[in-house]
UniProtKB/TrEMBL annotation:
GO molecular function: ATP binding; ATP hydrolysis activity
Coiled-coil region list: none
Residue span(s) of domain ABC transporter: 4-243
Keywords: ATP-binding, Nucleotide-binding
Gene3D superfamilies: P-loop containing nucleotide triphosphate hydrolases
Species of origin: Stappia sediminis
Superkingdom classification of source: Bacteria
Keyword check for Glycosyltransferase: no
Record protein name field: ATP-binding cassette domain-containing protein
SMART domains: AAA (SM00382)
Highest classification ranks of the organism: Bacteria, Pseudomonadati, Pseudomonadota, Alphaproteobacteria, Hyphomicrobiales
CDD domains listed in its UniProt record: ABC_Carb_Monos_I
Length: 246
């Protein structure tokens, strides 16, 4: 049984049809690359899965049961977390503080409640070790490399031990070495049984870490193929329209 199943998902913004009848499935431990040109509908689809947008039509199923996400917390409660392209990190806070932002661990002393910094530092350190990242809990985010920032954002998703992690352009605007760090993090997620949907314009990244690639063009899915059964040339043709569908 598929972990996530989308059936005929459509999204319209007034007269603009951003998505038209999208079908997509993903299983545990699988990584699917979602590719397409600007305006193809990738981010809209991700935001529907993450609970930011309501679909105009269509169904979302988790483990075979239909679900309705009215807000992001609904998706999170169903085991879905998202890492946005801008990472949504607070530069003036530590790595640990960012990991627990909005979900802080607290201790009570009588009627007084206070933050348990020690517990949060220890848990953050554990998450970074699991991801085999050199990021340290007490380091300030503003002093970190792009790869370390991604590790913080991914560690934040691991707090709830999600079934599915959505990643929106995680390797955009970072160095070659940092790209390698992020791809290793995606491998770690897959190895621990998490499913991943990776939105990326970088063809080598998708072909390195993904099992399948789905291509959107003008709001329609034009291909869904195993990586082993396609090529960068074919995917490029599908993205540009030189190849109609596959």
């Amino acid at each position: 049984m598929s972990l996530l199943q989308l059936e005929g998902v459509t999204k319209s913004f007034g007269a603009i049809h951003a998505l038209q009848g999208i079908d997509l499935t993903i299983s545990e431990g699988e990584a699917v690359g979602l590719m397409g040109d600007n305006g193809a509908g990738k981010s809209t689809l991700m935001r529907i899965i993450a609970g930011n947008f309501l679909p105009t039509a269509g169904k979302i199923r988790i483990n075979g049961s239909e679900v309705h996400f009215n807000k992001p917390v609904d998706a999170r409660n169903n085991g879905i977390e998202i890492v946005y392209q801008d990472l949504a990190l607070c530069n003036n806070l530590t790595a640990a503080a960012n990991v627990f932002l909005g979900r802080e661990i607290r201790k009570k002393f009588g009627p007084i409640s206070y933050l348990d910094h020690k517990a949060m530092f220890e848990k953050a350190a554990e998450l970074f070790r699991e991801l085999k990242s050199e990021t340290r809990p007490r380091d300030l985010v503003k002093q970190m490399s792009g790869g370390q920032r991604q590790a913080v954002a991914i560690a934040r998703t691991r707090l709830s031990d999600p079934k599915l992690v959505l990643m929106d352009e995680p390797t955009a605007a970072i160095s070659v070495r940092q790209v390698a760090e992020v791809l290793n993090l995606i491998h770690r997620l897959k190895d621990s049984g998490h499913a991943v949907i990776l939105v990326s314009h970088r063809m080598p990244d998708v072909f390195e870490v993904c099992d399948r690639v789905s291509v959107l063009r003008r709001g329609t899915k034009v291909a869904d193929k195993q990586i082993s059964e396609t090529s960068p040339e074919e995917v490029t043709g599908l993205i540009t329209g030189a190849i109609e569908n596959a």
